[in-house]
Amino acid sequence: MSQQLEKLTELLRTHLVPLPPGKARDSYGHPNFPQYRGVLGTDRISSHDHVLGFEMGQHGQIRNASSIHWKLKLEERHIVTDLVYYGRDIDSIMPAPLAGIPELWKRFVWVHAAQMDLVEDIGRNRLLGSAFGQYRDNNGLAYGQQLAPGLEKGALLSPPLWTPTTKAPPGHHDEPLEADDVETRYPQHRGLTLLVLGVMNEETKCLGKAEYCDSKFEFGWIRPPEYQQPFIAVCDEIGSFDSSRIRRAQDMGKADWFDRPVDKDWLRWKLEALGIKGLDPQNPEHRKQAKQLRLTSDEQEELEILSFESLRITTGLTLREFQMEVLKIPRWQVS
To answer: Does any domain span residue 188?
Structure first.
């Protein structure tokens, strides 16, 4: 952790209410506004359910920007999200010692404190990852859904496929669930997943720089003052380098397009070559070994370049442009 981010974390822990952290983000309650939750994007990265021993510079800023971008696009379509304050507006309810800090404007958001549904939802435009593995090994059945015969890896799915998984606690792996069973428990999820994915497809097609092969979503229930009853909302991270499979539009006609990720698949594959798949996140010794895995300096640089590129090709803005135009941070305070 950088010295600046370490000092910020100390300040946040002093003036807000620390909540259990995630793998790559820290969460906070507000002492005076319990209906809100603060989320800080750190530069931590994880893979295969391990928090790694190295970080990615500005990655927390990039993931924060991606999520804000897509939540604003959804709200334009009257799709409810958990987003409340972002960019300079976070100071609206920040305790005084935390106000006016540009690094927080870049990394921190206030969201509605949601009651989360205990399932994760993946919307798939392409037959990749675990869905392709299930399709290949189960006579065309993926997540309990029968698909057309003869599909190859990376096949375009029309309509897109909804595949739910468990929402595993830290250190555990998300497990596939039967779609029909989940739809019985959470009847809104299939439609909302495909609706959100549809918005992302429309926006990226219009931009013409990227394609989302699949993307993970989480939904929860919020009750803002203007609602008389709880309402389901798009929560958590959305459309980011970490939560999606992203490919360049210019690569999609190439035979090996699925091997050209602009997302965390690139890192996963590098770490698999170093043996991370054989390390159990429940084993303390294995966790220690995972933290010792390292990329070469050239690989680390390429990973960070891909992270920046993922934001640019999915939003049409560089990180610097996004922070000035959307987060309203003055030019001289943007690195």
So the answer is: yes
Number of domains the chain contains: 1
Tell me how far apart the alpha carbons of residues 15 and 169 are, in angstroms, rounded to a whole number. 27
Q: Which residue has the tokens 């800090």?
A: 101
SS3 of residue 147 by DSSP? coil
Q: Which residues contact 282 (CB under 8 A, 6 or more apart)?
A: 171, 172
Residue 232 lies in a domain: yes
Is residue 247 within 8 A of residue 84, CB to CB? The reply is no
Distance CA 65, CA 105 (A): 11
10, two tokens: 């100390």
Encode pLDDT of 184-219 as tens digits.
Answer: 999 999 999 999 999 999 999 999 999 999 999 999
Determine, yes or no, domain membership for 94. no
Q: Indicate whether 231 belongs to any domain.
A: yes
Question: For the residues 17-38, what does the mean pLDDT come to?
Answer: 95
How far apart (Å, rounded) are the C-alpha atoms in residues 53 and 60?
16
pTM above 0.90, yes or no: yes
> Residue 149 belongs to a domain with what CATH number?
3.30.470.20
C-alpha 86 chain-centroid distance:
16
Domain of residue 202, residue span: 116-276
